[in-house]
Specification:
Elements (H helix, E strand, L loop, with lengths): L3 E2 L1 H14 L4 E9 L3 E9 L7 E5 L2 E5 L1 H7 L3 E7 L2 E7 L5 E2 L6 E2 L1
Parallel strand pairs: 1-6, 2-5
Antiparallel strand pairs: 2-3, 4-5, 6-7, 8-9
């Protein structure tokens, strides 16, 4: 089981952590939301909890709680710039569909 970052995603997270001046890494999870059922959740983590799974890509820690890992296993996070927009893009092999706006997904 693993979640990985592309090099651009790792650079972006690292820059954000440096800007904050602290942090262990980025927590990736899912929550019930939207019209398709699940949405990705990202937050910076200052302390890893005992039950967390920790993965590392390009020197950046990706922290996932056990419940979310079942939905995220095998996911690759990229950081993309498209025109004036930029953000994380998830390639999740478990995803079966997503809503029209792209805000939520199903597994």
């Amino acid at each position: 089981m693993a979640i990985t970052l592309t090099e651009p995603a790792a650079r972006h997270v690292q820059a954000c952590l440096q800007g904050r001046g602290k942090g262990e890494g980025v927590r990736v999870g899912v929550k019930t939301s939207g019209c398709s059922g699940l949405a990705y959740v990202l937050e910076f983590v200052d302390a890893v909890e005992e039950a967390d799974q920790v993965f590392e890509s390009f020197g950046v820690k990706v922290i996932v709680d056990p419940k979310s890992l079942a939905y995220l296993d095998g996911t690759e996070m990229d950081f993309v710039k498209e025109g004036l927009n930029e953000g994380f893009k998830f390639s999740n092999p478990n995803q079966k569909g997503e809503c029209g706006c792209g805000e939520s997904f199903t597994v």
